[in-house]
Write the structure tokens for this entry.
Amino acid sequence: MAQFVPSTAEIVVSILELLDKNTDREHGITAVWIANQLGVTEKTVRSHLHTLQAMQPFGRKIERIERKDLKNAESADPRPGWYIEPIFDTAQMRLLADGAILSRSDSEYLHDLIAKLYAFAGQPN
């Protein structure tokens, strides 16, 4: 029985999804972890990460967080590794959330909207 081999495009999209879902400026993921999640080699993942870093897909930076970069981290559990820049930084997200709250919209609608804002701000679940 033949083993499924993902295409290059599928690997790249999966890497972007993992970065988006699991990282922020104080929480990176390693190429080894990504490779294990995708069932590909670490070399393949590193190659794609370096290409994505140079491309800045969708205008978002992909960078590697080093341990030294985390010495002043606010998080209780920062970790080095690769991350993707969030769509909104924390200040922008708070401004949008405050504006939404002041709109006096339906509470369920506001809850959903604020949850989406947090997701765009790169807040891991």
In short: The chain has a mean pLDDT of 88. DSSP finds five helices and two strands in the chain. The radius of gyration is 17 Å.
